[in-house]
Specification:
The structure holds 2 protein chains of 2 kinds. Chain A has 13 helices and 12 strands. In chain B, α2 crosses α12, α3 crosses α7 and α9 packs antiparallel against α12. The longest helix of chain B is centred in the N-terminal third of the chain and has 52 residues. The chains are: A alpha/beta, B mainly alpha.
């Protein structure tokens, strides 16, 4: 018995030692959304600085936040969305690495510098930005597509052929925009109207799912609430699809690279932040994930089909994307109840 | 005086004590060995079962933290919220059926799936049990074959088969039975099909284990006594297969009740099931205490119904025995 115990202990110790940062000097641990990181860009970074990059993935800001909050994740870089950056700064989870003093900061498009989630860019740099609106098959519906009415009060040919994102804020915000109400709303009379709107519209929806590309290309639905990059990927397989810029407004979002407080490979993380502000590297991320990046000069290195894509280049008369701030807990609670009622 | 030739009472007592001590020693040894043998499973249950359960229990009595997590403030709100709801629009506290209806929909679907699996699984198990012993392994192998593939992939395969442009609809339209695809996918029926498909082996295997032990001479004897086929089934086969039926139903009902992937993929995500409701609380809804409370309520419901069911089934078995 005894020798066995010792052996097991020894093996465990060895395993822990091996899993630990044995080669910490040349390492960088990135925790990003799944299927969102260009392997080519990572290879360039590894070659340039002789650093080994480890990549791990998450599927929602909440998942990432829950893990990071527990501490000791071993991750250096995370890529939270705009409102989550604000939350993480407020909760003291991010390191103030001052990207605004880095060499490549000059490449950042000035319109992305003074953003509400990180004014002046003391913590984060742009990764990808995009919009959330919807995609319609113009072969099925030939009228004007640039209105949210298609989701909430659809014409006959689209009834029962609609996929909504299974996403509380996106669905409720779309309802608020359609009714012309403010976001992060706690006005009960207005929320009552939105609740009724959603419950009534639900009969026209076939599914509520994040897998928008697959829903559209399989022919399960003809309209889907969608992100612009996903819309572009879906259009590649179903050319009659068109991305709408609804006149009532639509969501804008940006995912941002940031460094976790007390990151084990702090210096490498800073190198990486500077590295992705270089136009050529930002273009590699975009070519992979199919979204715009917020770095001036990256267009030069981007795939030709991206530069002219209607999903990326907004028409001149489209409304400005609406970047929604994180709502107060009180508002989230109200939204939760509306959401549960709608999905009862 | 030599004392070696006979034994004094004192010596007798001493030797008795030694014997007793030795016996106690062996008993203690046996107990220790038993404990040692048990310790891995006790440890496992402790670390991976009781410990997380305790955390869940504690969290369910705390207040939700902003942006997820919990704050250490005692609160029973999570449980109150389950049954009562402050009206969104005028703040009066009233009885709410929202969560109850989500629970009852889930329980209903799991029940229907259990009955469906029993109806399909029973003849299957009987068929296998009535084969020659050397052939049975082959059929059992076929039953367990689906487990070689991940549940997610199997569910996705069903999705491909029943979707509008899937094999079934293309076939129906090809033969000219319908001219438009019939919408099977993203309905409760699709979820029901998915649940049966996923958990059918859990029904067949325990049923087979019971039926395999069935003494077919009893069936023959019943026929000799002019029992009808139905009487044989009702009075001989079903009572003897009862342990298998109970085990199979439990094994299908419980995972069916908490199913997450199947309703999400095949149901279209429009209507919440218990599993999805709980997952939502730890994600977008940022209400961990309520998620914990809902999980515990589900567990209590399952445990209570199990106790009632097993007791009832036990009595039924005894009366037939």
């Amino acid at each position: 018995m005894k020798p066995n115990k010792t052996n097991i202990a020894a093996i465990l110790a060895a395993a822990v030692a091996m899993a630990g940062p044995a080669w910490a000097e040349g390492e960088l641990n990135i925790y990003n959304w799944g299927n969102y990181t260009s392997p080519e860009m990572i290879e360039r970074f590894e070659a340039k600085y002789d650093i080994e990059v480890n990549l791990d993935g998450y599927d929602s800001n909440e998942t990432m936040l829950a893990k990071v909050r527990e501490g000791n994740t071993g991750y250096d870089i995370v890529v939270p969305s705009d409102s989550t950056v604000a939350i993480m700064i407020e909760q003291n989870l991010l390191e103030e690495v001052k990207p605004n003093e880095m060499e490549n900061f000059k490449n950042m498009d000035p319109k992305w510098v003074d953003v509400y989630w990180d004014p002046g860019r003391n913590y984060s740099v742009p990764w990808q930005w995009g919009t959330t609106a919807f995609t319609v098959d113009t072969a099925v519906y030939s009228g004007d597509i640039h209105t949210l009415a298609l989701m909430f009060d659809p014409p006959e040919e689209l009834k029962g052929r609609i996929n909504m994102l299974n996403d509380m804020p996106e669905v409720i915000n779309a309802g608020l925009r359609y009714k012309g109400f403010d976001r992060c709303n706690s006005n009960k009379e207005e929320l009552r109207e939105v609740t009724e709107l959603l419950i009534n519209a639900k009969q026209y929806w076939r599914t509520m799912d994040y897998a928008t590309i697959e829903k559209l290309t399989s022919g399960d639905v003809d309209l889907s609430q969608n992100w612009n990059g996903a819309a572009m990927r879906a259009r590649a397989q179903r050319p009659t699809l068109q991305y709408a810029y609804p006149k009532e407004g639509f969501t804008g979002w940006m995912d941002n690279a940031a460094v976790l407080k007390g990151a084990p490979n702090m210096e490498n993380a800073k190198l990486f932040m500077n590295f992705i502000m270089e136009p050529e590297n930002a273009a590699l991320i975009s070519n992979f994930a199919r979204y715009a990046n917020g770095i001036i000069g990256s267009e030069e290195f981007m795939d030709a089909d991206m530069i002219s894509a209607p999903e990326i280049v907004m028409p001149a008369d489209a409304p400005t994307p609406d970047f929604v701030r994180p709502c107060a807990q009180e508002v989230t609670d109200l939204y939760n109840r509306i959401w549960t009622k709608v999905k009862e | 005086m030599t004392q070696s030739s006979f034994i004094t009472p004192a010596q007798q007592a001493e030797s008795d004590a030694k014997l007793a001590a030795a016996k106690a020693q062996t008993d203690a040894d046996a107990r220790r060995r038993r404990l040692q043998l048990l310790s891995p499973s006790v440890l496992l249950i402790g670390i991976f079962g009781l410990f997380p359960l305790t955390i869940t229990l504690i969290y369910s009595f705390l207040s939700p933290g902003s942006y997820g997590g919990v704050t250490w403030e005692f609160s029973t709100n999570a449980y109150v919220q389950f049954l009562f709801e402050a009206d969104i629009f005028d703040d009066t506290l009233s009885f709410s059926t929202t969560y109850l209806s989500i629970f009852s929909r889930s329980i209903g679907l799991a029940l229907v799936a259990t009955v469906g699996a029993l109806i399909i699984g029973f003849p299957t198990a009987y068929f296998i049990a009535s084969k020659r012993p050397e052939q049975r392994n082959f059929w059992l192998f076929l039953i367990t074959l689906p487990f070689w593939t991940n549940l997610l992939i199997r569910t996705y395969a069903i999705l491909l088969i029943i979707r509008d442009e899937g094999i079934i609809n293309l076939g129906l339209m090809g033969v000219g039975i319908t001219d438009k695809p019939i919408g099977i996918l993203y309905t409760d029926f699709a979820v029901f099909m998915g649940l049966i498909y996923s958990y059918l082996p859990f029904m067949v295997l325990p049923l087979y284990a019971s039926l395999e032990k069935l003494d077919f001479r009893l069936v023959e004897a019943a026929y000799d006594l002019y029992a009808s086929r139905f009487q044989v089934l009702r009075h001989i086969i079903i009572p003897m297969a009862k342990p298998g039926i109970v085990a199979g139903c439990i094994l299908v009902f419980i995972p069916g009740l908490g199913a997450y992937i199947t309703p999400e993929l095949l149901g279209g995500g429009k209507d919440l099931m218990i599993g999805n409701l709980i997952a939502l609380q730890f994600g977008g809804s940022r209400n961990w205490p309520f998620g914990s409370a809902a999980a515990l309520i589900l567990m209590v419901v399952v445990m209570l119904s199990l106790i009632v069911y097993v007791r009832h089934a036990g009595k039924g078995g005894a009366s037939h025995g």
